Amino acid sequence: MHGVIARRGPQLQGLIAEASRQGNGLVVVVDQRTRNQEGRIPPDDIIGVFEVKNGQVAPGSYTPSPNHVILSPDGFFQLDAELQMCLLEELSAL
Q: What is the residue extent of each domain of the chain?
């Protein structure tokens, strides 16, 4: 999963838009099962982060979160629609 996110994430429209809006810093890949999409995200619902420089995702900057859990009391992890499609595409190519 992390390999797919690292490879395909920087080309996804949602990530590109967020990087452009933010300018510099980190863009967090959030597990969609989280109860609080707009507020503080629990550490076990942060899948990983990309570094953003000058409004663009820095190449090779994806870092998986060591705190993310695949299964939590809120259920199995859930990727956003764009990442889910990327994961399914890569799995079907195996």
A: 2-92
H or E element: which one contains 26?
A: strand 25-30
The residues, any chain, with a CB within 8 Å of residue 19's CB and separated by 6 or more, are 27, 50, 52, 55, 56, 57
Region of 28 (left: φ > 0; alpha: ψ -120 to 50; beta: rest) is: beta
Amino acid at 35: R
State the pTM of this model: 0.89
Contact 1, 34 (CB under 8 A): no
Nearest-5° angle of CA 54, CA 60, CA 61?
Answer: 60
Tokens of 15: 């990530």
**Percent of the chain beyond pLDDT 70?**
100
The rounded distance, in Å, linking the Cα atoms of 56 and 36 is: 26
Q: How large is the greatest C-alpha to C-alpha distance in the chain, in angstroms?
A: 38
